[in-house]
Automatic annotation (TrEMBL), chains A, B:
GO molecular function, a single term: sequence-specific DNA binding
Identification of the protein by name: Transcriptional regulator, AsnC family
Boundaries of every HTH asnC-type domain copy: 3-64
PANTHER family referenced in this protein's UniProt entry, alphabetically: LEUCINE-RESPONSIVE REGULATORY PROTEIN (PTHR30154), TRANSCRIPTIONAL REGULATORY PROTEIN (PROBABLY ASNC-FAMILY)-RELATED (PTHR30154:SF45)
GO biological process: response to amino acid
InterPro entries: AsnC-type_HTH_dom, Dimeric_a/b-barrel, Tscrpt_reg_AsnC-like, Tscrpt_reg_AsnC/Lrp_C, Tscrpt_reg_HTH_AsnC-type_CS, WH-like_DNA-bd_sf, WH_DNA-bd_sf
Keywords: DNA-binding, Transcription, Transcription regulation
DNA sequence: CCTGAAAGACACTATTT
DNA sequence: AAATAGTGTCTTTCAGG
């Protein structure tokens, strides 16, 4: 599962432009288009590249409220239990277990504050959740 | 800046597969390829779609340590000051101002704990930073 | 705002080195 | 493993409804 220098440059090119043609990438890294394709196929097969997506302005889709929520769970709730429960909420964009007092930190995108409140209430009602602590995003400073 | 139902379906298709052809998308939404292309061009021009990118497994690129850091800043530090300072760090993947005690919340990706520690030290040394509070990511539960 | 057609560019496979 | 050549598909522009 080692990436050589050319692989890294191909990945960088595809991160900068996910719709770049193999020819364009090839010109950047000094390879022919088929050679680039083979490497990209291999990177996907190995799981280094997991997919391609469009980057969307959340506001344009009506997602205007964003928050980070710390989850405090009962005794020894397994990560898989938390993951399974959170997967039900499309508003939960991201979730991870963390060090420190909280058991998990989740990233929520909602249409407005009211919508966020409803989602938070439902998450709070999950059996394993003891309490939550939220911070609302005021403005995005940067995003990569 | 209104998106109709077809626009939303095109965006959904491109979020699911950022390299989908206009023909494929057209088949899904009931439009010809040129019609899809014109809508995508318009969505990009309006800033609804900001770009396309490859989704990469951070571990495959050697990014094995991830953390969220709360920033506590001096008196009235402007968001643009914070943004400008953080833009210098490629390890800062995400940053936003938030409600609550902290002034900002940032998402950091580093090669290992040592690397993270170095980045954190440099951020702590920024003139406007009073103190920071970090949580390390233990395991990712989900990601969309 | 869409469809349909045509030209050019690109992807993909097979072959060769 | 990469370059090249050839075939098929897609993108892109343009004309027309």
């Amino acid at each position: 599962m080692e990436l050589d220098d050319i692989d890294r440059r191909i990945v960088a090119a595809l991160r900068a432009d996910g719709r770049a043609t193999y020819q364009q990438i090839g010109a950047q890294v000094g390879l022919s288009a088929p050679a680039v394709k083979r490497r990209v196929d291999r990177l996907r097969a190995r799981g280094a590249i997991t997919g391609f997506t469009a980057l969307v302005d959340p506001a344009a889709l009506g997602w205007r409220t964003e928050a980070y929520v710390e989850l405090f769970c009962q005794g020894r709730t397994s990560p898989s239990t938390i993951a399974a429960a959170l997967a039900k909420y499309p508003e939960v964009v991201d979730a991870c277990t963390v060090s420190g007092e909280a058991d998990a930190l989740i990233h929520v995108m909602a249409e407005d504050v009211k919508h966020f409140e409803q989602v938070l209430e439902r998450i709070n009602a999950e059996r394993f959740v003891v309490r939550t602590k939220s911070v609302l995003v005021l403005s995005r400073l940067l995003h990569r």
